[in-house]
Description:
Its main location: nucleus. One of its GO terms (cellular component) is transcription elongation factor complex. Belongs to the SPT6 family. It is found in: Chromosome; Nucleus. The protein has 57 helices and 25 strands. The chain has 1408 residues and is α+β, with helices and mostly antiparallel strands. The strands form 6 sheets. The protein has a 5-stranded mixed beta sheet with strand order 6-5-4-7-8, sandwiched between helices. It has a 5-stranded mixed barrel with strand order 11-12-13-15-14.
Amino acid sequence: MADGVGVTDSSEEGEDDEEEEKRIREGFIVDEDEEVEEEDEEEERQRRKKRRKRRHRRRVEEEEEALEEDDLELLEENTGTPFRNRLTRLRRGRDGRSPPASSSSRRKQVVESSEDDLDDDEDLPQVQDIQRIWDDERAGRGQEDEEDMDDFIDYEDEEEAGGLDEQEREERRRERKKLERQRRRAMGSIHELSGIDAGAWDEIHDVFGDGHEYDWALAGDTEVGLDEEAQKPEMKYQDVFEPSEIRARMLTEDDDLIRVQDIPERMQLATSSFSQSSTLSLHQNLTESDIDDAAAWVTSRLSARKTRDFFSDNGPYRAYRDALVLAVSYALRFLFVQEFEVPYIWTHKRDYISYFNPQEIRTRIDLISLPELWRIHVLGQKYRSLVERRNALFAAYSRLNTEDDYFEQTLKPKIDTVEMVADSTEWLSMKYKSRKQDTFDLHFHDDEEITDRKRKPPSRVSAYEIAKKSVISKLAEGFGIRPHEVVQNFISSDRPNFVEDQELNPTTFAEQFVNPDSLISQTPAELLRRSRMILATELGKDPLLRQTIRDLFKVEAQISVQPTERGINKIDEHHPYFNFKYLHHKPIGQMLDSAQFLHILAAESEHLVNVSIYLTNEAKGRFERRLNDAFASDSYSDIAKAWNEERSRVVQEALDQHLIPIGTKWCREWLREEVEDALAAHCGSKLRERIDVAPFATADSQPGYSPSVLAISWGKGDPQKDAITMAILDDMGRLREHVKIDNLVDQDYRDEFIDLLKRRRPDVIVVGGFSMATTKLSARVKAILSGRAVEGDPAVPEWHPPENVNEQVFDIPVIYVRDEVARIYQHSKRAAEEFSTLSPIAKYCVGLARYAQNPLNEYAALGADITAISFEDEDQHLIPKEKLLIALERVLVDVTNKVGVEINRAMTDSYYQHLLPLVCGLGPRKANALVRKIATLGGNLVNRDQFIKSGLLTTKIFLNAAGFLRIPRDSDVKSAKNRHADDDGPDPLDATRIHPEDYELARKMATDALELDEEDIHGEHPSHVVSLIMDDNDNERKLNELNLDEFAVNMFEANEDRKRHTLNVIREELLKPFAEHRGPFPALQPWEVLTMLSGETPRTLRTGLIISVLIVRIEMNDTVITRLDSGIEGMITPDYLSAQGNVRPKSMFKKGQAVQAVVVEVNLDLPMDHFQVTLSTRSIDLTQGDGLFRRVKRDDYWNTQQYERDLEMQARKKRAETDRTRRVIKHPNFHNFNAAQAENFLEKQQRGDVVIRPSSKGVDHLAVTWKVDDKLYQHIDVTEINTPNGPILAVDDKHQYADLDELIVNHVQAIARKVEELMAHEKFKHGPEDELHLSLKNFVAANPAKSAYGFTLNRRKPGHFNLCFLANKNATVQTWPVRVTPESYCLFEAPVAGVPELCDAFKVRCVS
Length: 1408
């Protein structure tokens, strides 16, 4: 074998070569012919170069001489002479062995077939067979090469060649081959005929060989040039384009695989098909044997409502729980075995996910809704991943070649979550650490690829491993029960394992394991600690305990938030994070309904807060007691108690070091996933509200009609810069005209606008823009349409009656539509490609018009940019983009398949074509491939059969997509008649939602409705009867007379086909094919229009807010017209100018002045395009401030004490920085204390004692702190007001005092006396409020016929009381607040003089 020039591999010459090399190294041999050999090599290179040139020239000549197949056909047609099997001259046969480059390229051409070829791979040879073709060519030039020369027969006699038919020519060819073989045999015996016998030939062969020993050298001479050509790499598009460009154009190998596979595209992707980085999913589908287990697993996790309604004892649908499980199994089978997408199942297989009972055929219960069907799809994907990982775990366990009864009998049946798979893997790895490490290297499709298989040794050995390998493991066995037995006791109700009690106490038992020879001193306590660590670790890593703690966290966990030092200063009352700044003990179940937790995580990432998730003390104690009971001994001896104490320490360590951290970490991620999913689903529902609507329709428009739209915009509304731009789209969405005019005031421009309306006659006018000036444009357009003048219109004289301005009146509605998509479109690459000559505002108008014609198409055309649309202003940015894309894509897929796509229109309309990838079964790749294939057929389809007959779609894709791809009926074509079933003619059923697999049912229903027999329709097109029933004027009555219930029962009894819902769909489609199922086009609400044009929301224009406005003008009636920063017009009436009244506004304001004003009212009149805000500049309104309105609401679970402590700390720091001079007041009760110091000072004082101190609110404030009860102090804010009669100390409007003594006596001590009086009452209960609740419950339990009430101090509001009462034993304890003032008690702000009156007031209010 020759690998190259001058390279040999001869085993016979190996020894000689070694000796020769040795002599050369020692210098015994000197090569004297080196120069001669170099010259020979140069000559050889020149000869090879010439040979390459000759081969290239000959190849070019042959290519030029070769006739194309079309040319041959043309010659034959014109001359009548066959040219295909006729050669004018005999050409030299080429060597059968192809050069490497050409052979590899030829193999590539065969192996890398096109998409069309891959659809019919049964007819293709296998790849190895194709490769063998070229291997045989390279094998040598035997008889096959010589027989190939027979193809080069020269038919010199044209008449003979042309006059013979094919059979005669074949006989002539066989005769010539026979003669040729005889000639070869004769030539093979020449050596015998020449007188040389066989023995002589053998001797010649032994001496000279057979002449082929040096073929490798000859081959090398001729093949070097070919090798050089072969080494040139073949140019690929990967060598030209950047990888990012290849991915964007979907030309990667994964994209090719997705295009070719007969699996719906979205099912092949692990991400959204909109995503720019979509990845291929490598999951294996479920099998039929997995469906039952999958159905049970999915049903239990479907939703809390489903569990409550179907599986609780008092659930309203408990009788249908088996039907629900069956429906889920059908859905999973359709999704993961038969590979049908959700819209297909919802539309064509609804009977299988609804309740169906032939005996109760009229009972209609939708067991699974559309959102729940998507939920089943998600849960099925999770279960599929679980099965894959669980199988990998079981395979790893089998490789251990061991039998573990606990794993096989206890763990294995309970592994039903991915977390348990990971826990079990870790548990096996820990238990069988000494076994081969590779056993536990589980890798899945979504794991990162490991490039280096070299194992890095562990940097350190854990304390558990060290202890486990020492004698301490024997000490751990002395606890009398193994960890997995403890777990079995924990999960079992009958406690199958018992503890073996020791005869020695723990310390004495541990002394037996002390090693006196050890260099490190070991005490029994230390040995016990390490043995407890072994048991705690094994308990903490047990999968069942971990799963139990996760389930407990899911139900019982609470969350608290503590601000960091940075967060305390940065998060003030107006910060959006203030809502949860001091969140305290909030149940985790209440975090699922809002995006609060995502905001908490965002604040944590900004280092503003610290988040803690934990179990309640009750839940943790319950779990700990249960685990202790499973671990403890039942004996009562002192030794058993001592061992139980050690076991309790093990349980405590397992909880604190292992189980609680695991539960906390999991709960955090689980909660984040749940909230993200819920928020993404909410954004999806918002999108559904916007796109699941029909195009705008006038009162007299026909169903399914798309309106012609005139879109008009003034841009930002600047008269000096912005012109009015108009674009009109016809009913097919084509841009017919775009116009730009300066204004609608000048008569010439008005006439031009009116002329456009007369010529185009739009069905609707859509107005949009970027400022509040758009409302003026809308009002002017409405005025022109109605033929009246606009207020202040200079084009109309004052004496002219406004109702007769225009003779022409147009009945065209003027509306606003959402412009968020149009704003994106005007600057998009898509707009630049479609309308390169239009201005951005004109493109914006096109977007507005398209939205009015088809909101679905507009959102679908956005692709991945749809995430730029805001569906949740405050929370959407917290959702991962990929998760949001998936949720939005599902909604687009649902609505698109609900509407259907006209395939022929998609071929001609690139804008409409954006809907095609959303069709069930398709996607961007498959849709593009389908468009290309249809284009090769002429760009138009006649019927749905062509999808299969022409190889446009594979089987599964056709089944998924066929019912949603419409081919409308041509009204000019008469109904199909006298057509055979195999004709490629139109089928009226192709214009309906009816799936091709149900065509026979539709034809049967049409035949029965028309009361025809088979003889009546014999020989006609199968769907001829469908055309007849569709065109029948009385078709609705005839179809309604059919007994579809009986028909459905018969079908079920015959073939177990469930078709009740399908039959209803068929009837509806025969009456109204692809009828509009979407809701009407919604009109925008006034606040939505205001937000779109100005950005203001009800929150930013809330009544009571103080805003900055600009004075625009002062009217004659003293009304001040202003303008807000957002462009909205404001109005200040004389009543709201000043509190003094009778003030001229010109004396207060001037034009262009910026003033502060309070929002009084927002006036919105959308029909009149009037948006105005009523404002007030009265000092009484401004001095109150708007802090109450701007302040962020606290969460109900608020840590008030911590909040007040931090406030005090901040105030103290602020005082230390800004107020270095201490205030001094000459009074015995005055101290320079802060709140904490005052409380510490009063801690040892009597109740009612007072401290007066400086206030952090400023120099005009004082703080009074008095002791209400032990560890309970009230802080009173006192304001110093300077009046002409002297300073006044004001607590509030009703309580004002001349000096501090009067304040102490008449206010503080008066309140203290009231507090003492109530605390001395028999109904008062000392201690926390929970103790009062317990006392009331015990009293009512002992006296069921009575109710009870009592008082206790309000610890959250010092100086206040809580009145708690219990009406009966079945009621809950109610709490009412009681406020104490110097004169009275206030129950719900109703004052009473004393405690008896307070009790009477409570009883009266309670009875009423």
